[in-house]
Design goal:
Strand content: 25-35%
Low-confidence stretches: none
Structural class: alpha+beta
Distance between the termini: 51 Å
Helix content: 25-40%
Number of strands: 13
Mean pLDDT: 94
Order of helices and strands: EHEEEEHEHEEEHEHEHEEH
Strand order of the largest sheet: 1-2-3-5-6-8-7
CATH architecture of the largest domain: 3-Layer(aba) Sandwich
Number of domains: 2
Largest sheet: 7 strands, mixed
Radius of gyration: 18 Å
């Protein structure tokens, strides 16, 4: 398998794996703009040369858009190998490339956000454990911060305190999101319209800086939905799933 690293020079012509379409698609445009702004901060997006979901995206933790304390580490934003790409060792190729690159850049290790059980839009905990990642910290309801130290003396990373017990003061539905995931560009407007049409109290908050993301009230910032102050889900919802979830929550 050949792999390609996105750069300012090839960003326009290369697909981004997680949203395979042309640059006029709002999902692609938002994600590529977000990626382009992060490249100068050290973000790496390494992907299969073939079209499909096979890539890893990582950045120095100081610039990561998540509420973690992991100075000197490299943080994996997203790591996805699926479909026909599974079972060929490509996950190992991508992770090994990240490890090698991180060591060459003098990083202390690698962090990634996962969960106690495999969940959508989070790294597979069993795979991370298999590759030597250890549990660094937890955040409610079931987020885990995994880390792979390159030296046993490396400090243990942690979630920031406000992310460990996610809660906000506002009632109704409140959604925090970033353009770090392309699907938010499509599904956030759909959910906003759906809530409005059904008379549901709904507020969306676009996290548009690393500082805001690092001080966000939940461990996962690409998509964090709250209801009446409590965290509900990090899964990017379709209209059908949102309505089903809303019916369940509002019944209670």
């Amino acid at each position: 398998m050949d792999y390609i690293k996105l750069t300012h020079e090839n960003m326009d012509k290369e697909h981004i794996c997680c949203a395979i379409s042309n640059n006029k698609d709002p999902q692609v445009a938002s994600k590529k703009a977000w990626l382009s702004d992060r490249l100068d901060e050290g973000l790496v997006f390494l992907k299969a040369a073939q079209r499909g979901k096979c890539f890893i995206e990582y950045i120095p933790a100081e610039y990561a858009w998540v509420p973690v304390e992991a100075e000197g580490y490299m943080h994996i934003n997203c790591f996805w190998v699926s479909g026909s790409f599974k079972g060929h060792g490509y996950s190992n190729d991508l992770l090994n490339a990240c490890i090698t690159d991180s060591k060459e850049k003098g990083r202390k290790g690698i962090t990634a956000i996962s969960s106690s059980k495999k969940k959508p839009f989070l790294s597979d905990p069993k795979y991370l454990e298999y590759k030597g990642f250890k549990l660094a910290d937890t955040a409610e309801p079931d987020f885990t911060l995994m880390y792979l130290p390159f030296d046993e003396t490396a400090p243990v990373p942690s979630f920031k305190e406000q992310a460990k017990h996610p809660h906000i003061s506002e009632n109704g539905f409140v959604l925090y999101y970033t353009f770090g995931c392309p699907y938010t560009a499509k599904y956030v407007p759909l959910i906003e319209d759906c809530a409005k049409q059904n008379g549901m109290p709904f507020k969306s908050i676009h996290i548009d800086t690393a500082a805001a993301a690092q001080n966000a009230p939940a461990a996962q910032t690409n998509y964090a939905l709250f209801y009446n102050g409590s965290f509900v889900t990090n899964e990017i919802l379709s209209e059908k799933k949102f309505l089903a979830l809303a019916d369940k929550l509002m019944d209670h």
